[in-house]
Amino acid sequence: MKRNIVHLCLTGLLMLAGFAQAAEPIKLGLNYPSTGRYKEQGLAQARGALLAVEEINARGGILKRPVELLTANSASKPDKAVDNVKELAAQGVSMLFGGSSSAVAIAAGQEAAKHDLLYFGTLTYANETTGAQGHKYMFRETYNAHMAAKALAAYLNESLKDKKLFYITADYSWGWSTEDSLRAFTNTEDKGVHSGVLTAYPRPRDSDFKDALQQAEASGADVLMLVQFGDDMAMALKVAQQMGLKDKMTIIVPNLTLGMARSAGSGIMEGVIGTVPWCWRVPYEYDFAGGKAFVEAFVERFNTYPSSSAASAYSIVYQFKEAAERSRSLDTAKLIKALENHSYTHLKDAQQWRAMDHQNVQSVYVVRSRPRNDVLKSDLHEDFFEILLQLPGEQAVQTAEEWALERKSVGKSLALE
Q1: Domain ranges of the chain
Q2: Strand, helix or coil at 391?
C-alpha cells in the first residue's frame, strides 16, 4: 500500500560548512495530520518542526550531522498513524513525534515502542497518554486534561458557584478524560444537575451539534463546556452562534489553539474561555526571550503567528537535539536517561520532563478570546487571546499519588515499561 510519506529534507544544507560530505543525516519522523478535521494543527506542527530543523542545520546539526525531517500524514486516524510509524522506522528515523489526537498519539507511541524508538506527543491531551497508557518510550511535551482542568477551575470556580453546567463532549479518549477532570475540579460531578451529551468522533455532523446544543439550551444551563477540538470545535461554535446561545450561556472550550481560533473566526470566538500551554502572546506578556525569538523567526518564515502546536513541535526537535548532545548518543535508552528529570527554559518559563511518567511539567495559561474589533486591528489579525491567569506547572500537574491511582486502576505497573 502506497504511503503518504513526504520528505521535507532541506536541499543545500548538506553543503553547510562543518558537515563532512559523507555525514549520514539524522532522520526525525513527524506523524501529523495534513488532512482531516485537525489539519490546521498538523500544518502548524510541520512548520514548527521545519523551522527547528532549518535552524539546527544552519548551526551545525546534531552531533555534527545534518538533520532530515520525514513526515507522514496520519489524517488523525490511529491505524494510519501506526502504519506511518512502521514505515518511518524502516526508513531509519532516530525518533518520532506528532499528535493532534490522543488516540493517534497513544497508538503511534505504542508502535514506536516496538521499534525501540522514542515518541514525543505534541497535541495529545488525554490523561491516559502519560497515565494509564504511559510507557518509557512516550514523552508528552504538552500539558494534559488534568492540568488544563485544574487551571480552568482556579479561574472559574468562584464565578461558577451556583451555576449549572452542560457538557458536549467528543466521544473518544481525550474527550472522556477532559470531561472527567473538569467535573472533578469544578465540583460538577453530579450528572443529574450538570448533564451532558457525547458527540460522534471522528467526523461529527452539523446535525449532531445542533441536537446537542438544543439539549444544552433545554437544560437551562448557565455554562456550556464544549469539549471539542480542531474544526469540530469551530463547527460547534458556529452552530451555537446561529442558535443565539452565545448570548445565553458562557462558553468554555478547555483546550484552545490559534489554528482553532482562526478556523472559527474572531466574531464567533469572542468571549470564549479556555486554556493553552503556550500562545504567541505569552513571551511578550512575561518577557521570555527565547519565546520572542521563536515568534519573530516564525512570522518572518511563514507570515503567520505560531500556535501552541507549532511551539510544541519546535521545542521537541530542540529537546531531542539537547538530549542527544548530553548523552553523546542516539541510543534510545541513553536518550531516555538524558531526558528524565531534565529541566530547561526555552519558549516560556522553566519546564521539566518528569521521570515518573514522562509528563512535561509546565505552566498553564487560562485565556479569553478578545473582542472581534481588537483582533481585526492587531498585526496579521491574529491577536486572539487575552491571558487571564498563569498556573505554575507544579500546581497543575497530577501528584505522584494521583498518578499511581490511575495506573493501579488499570492494573499497570508504577514503573514505566
Answers
A1: 5-143+288-301+328-357, 146-282+364-396
A2: strand
Q: pLDDT tens across 108-126, in order?
A: 999 999 999 999 999 899 9
**Which alpha helices (DSSP H) does 161-307 contain, by range?**
173-185, 206-219, 230-242, 258-264, 266-269, 282-286, 289-302
Q: What is the pTM of this model?
A: 0.93
Helix (H) or strand (E) holding 250: strand 250-255
**Cβ(226)–Cβ(251) under 8 Å?**
yes
User: What cell was used for 92?
Assistant: 531509519
> What is the C-alpha separation between 224 and 168, in angstroms, rounded?
8
CA distance 130 to 144: 9
Using alpha carbons only, give the angle 388, 314, 255 rounded to the nearest 5 degrees: 35
pLDDT in tens, 310-366: 999 999 999 999 999 999 999 999 999 999 999 999 999 999 999 999 999 999 999
CATH homologous superfamily, domain 5-143+288-301+328-357: Response regulator (3.40.50.2300)
